[in-house]
Input
Amino acid sequence: MDASSTLSRQGHRLLQIGVALLLFSSLEGFAIPYLAAPRLGLSAHTLSALQGVLLLALGLTWSRLNLGAATSRVAFWLLIYSALAILTAYVIASAWGAGNETMPLAAGASHGSAFQEAVIKVVGYSSAPTGLTAFALILWGLRRTDARPTDS
Output
């Protein structure tokens, strides 16, 4: 499979996941008052909407990336993992009423057991290196390779 068709297929998948995150955000909004930590639920609601829009924008841009099939696959999966890992950490924290060790501004006084806090920390922190790597690869893929002279 050539890089062009891989990029096109991945871009379409990003659009689908982006819309799914917007749908999740819409439905999760109804659950906010019933969560153990409603403030974290609101943060998860906002985060999933932001990620949905981000993935829609990247899905529209994806086919323009100057990346090979293997590199685009790595960037794609790291991006998906990063987005879903941090969202999962927020959703788990809001359901458990925990998370102030990892996300103190959003969690406030919501503190869980040592196990709960550790799970939230591992899942949440694992999204950072994967997301940074994905964004670095995407930025690299946005480079221009055609050497067109600029008008002076």
About this structure: The CA atoms of residues 66 and 140 lie 8 Å apart. The two ends are 41 Å apart (CA to CA).
